[in-house]
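Example 428.
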Amino acid sequence: MSSQPLLPHQRTDLDRPITTKRKLILTTILIPILLIGGIIWVSIKGDGLPKDDLGLARYYLKGSPVIDGHIDLPEFARAFYGNNISAFDLNKPTKGHVDIPRIREGSLGAFFWSIFVECRDDNGQDFLNPTFQVRDTLEQIDVSFNLIEKYSDTFAFAATSDQVEVAIKEGKVASMFGLEGGHMLGNSLAVLRTYHKLGVRYMTLTHSCNNAFADSAGIFEGVEERWGGLSKFGRSLIPEMNRLGVIVDLSHVSDKTALQALALTRSPIMLSHSAARHFNNMSRNVPDEILAKIGRGKHQVDGVVMVNFFPVFASSKPEEVDVAYIADEIEYIVEKTGKHHVGIGSDYDGIESTPKGLEDVSKYPYLFAELIKRGWTEHELSLLAGGNFLRVFRGVEETSRKLQKDGWKPSQVIYEKRRDLDPIGWEL
Ligand SMILES: [Zn+2]
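Predicted structure in complex with zinc ion:
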């Protein structure tokens, strides 16, 4: 083995001995100048950190940018432009809540692109009426990939926690896919596996309608339950999600569905965009009973509750919702679960109104400034910004690896009400 250092020392002028004359210049002129300069610097700048809360929030977010659990940019592309990505420019202000300059201003370092198509409540009692939902879901995955590719200076597709971290370190916005509703699976675990191959890393078990797997919370009021929580088929879905490494997302589901999924999952869970029911008694919001189940104690499941910004969910008086109100909600969830279980899931581009002071993705620092005012430390803010989500994601990846190592194979369970896969039994 060579004893050479990795970077051989280059002999330069710096290696020459300092002459006595130079020493004299150093001690009599340079050192006093440096000392005085240093004193002036320290008295102006203190410890070098910005003195105002907003400046400090921006400074902290540079190191630990926001990882948002739910942004409807793909839905924005579909609803306003029929998914034609040449019809709008993300480098310029959009009429939504998201564009690249505002992403940069708000220190958004990663987000889940919400893959969403409407669910139907006229899908038949057994959810067997044919729909175009799988086609439309594939179109939403396609438009997301197209945008990531078109703006590849900004976005980097990420399918693992490591890829998220690498993208952030490279100054890119890590782009993950989350599926908003089991109705998009067409009653098929094979479709789930295929979406996973396309990068989907979480799925809310329902959207606002019941589906073959589970009952929904509805939106503004509950819907009549079909299964009493998870269906028999839904009980096969959870282990398959655990095996694949698709995070079980309990936003949008009924309380019974959430409690049963918590009892069944082997992996950590998330609520990608939920408000607290304590503040607004709406079925779509997460109740204390479920918050109590999230944690790392006995009989709890590790998870992250990412707080939704939609004022209509947050409060029965939406016009009163502002930065301080959202901070109150975050602190309430912390009171119930601890600072290791909270995150941000704004729902930007998917909501018709926003809190005062949190109008778009450029405004996250104002929320962090509010929490600094309330005494949150840099470390606690980094957990809220994205640290908690990354821990959950790693936990899900770890369980997936373990289950596959233990020999778990792709589930062969088929929705019992389907008849199209019944063997035909022709003569060979
Ligand atoms: Zn939603």
